[in-house]
């Protein structure tokens, strides 16, 4: 059990490192809510992050905000639940219509790694802490 948890944690951390690099290049990211932004900050993922739920924004408002950034690519990092999937698809189609590439690599990769255990970006930080605790306990059990 230990190696698979360690591999999962390493994969998540590598993905977050890659996300940090992409945001540091100026690529914006779209998340659902303010708590998602706060979680990414806790994970030291900092950059131009746009929330879809701020001040009653509509999907058109978010697309307009992204369009005003004049970027060729936007990272979509919405929740993994049904609403998040629908919103991701809607935003992706809207971005494509604006000739902006929707980057779904991080969303798909995270979803495949944590999708059964975490339903939203907001839950990532606590999930990572849980993995670290479980790995620590497993190491103690193996030593006994």
Explain what the structure shows.
62% of the residues lie in helices and 9% in strands. With 144 residues, it is an alpha/beta fold. The longest helix is centred in the first third of the chain and has 23 residues, at 2-24. The mean pLDDT is 89.
Q: How far from one another are the termini?
A: 16 Å
CATH architecture: 3-Layer(aba) Sandwich
Helix content: 55-70%
Number of helices: 6
- DSSP strand count: 4
Q: Please summarize the sheet with the most strands.
A: 4 strands, parallel
Number of domains as seen in the coordinates: 1
Spatial ordering of strands, largest sheet: 2-1-3-4
Unreliable stretches covering 5 or more consecutive residues: none
What form results from the Cα inertia axes?
elongated
| Broad structural category | alpha/beta
> At the third CATH level, what is the topology name?
Dna Topoisomerase Vi A Subunit, Chain: A, domain 2
**What gyration radius follows from the Cα positions, in whole Å?**
16 Å
- SSE string, helices as H and strands as E: HEHEHEHEHH
CATH class: Alpha Beta
Q: What fraction of residues sit in β-strands?
A: 5-15%
In round numbers, the mean pLDDT is: 89
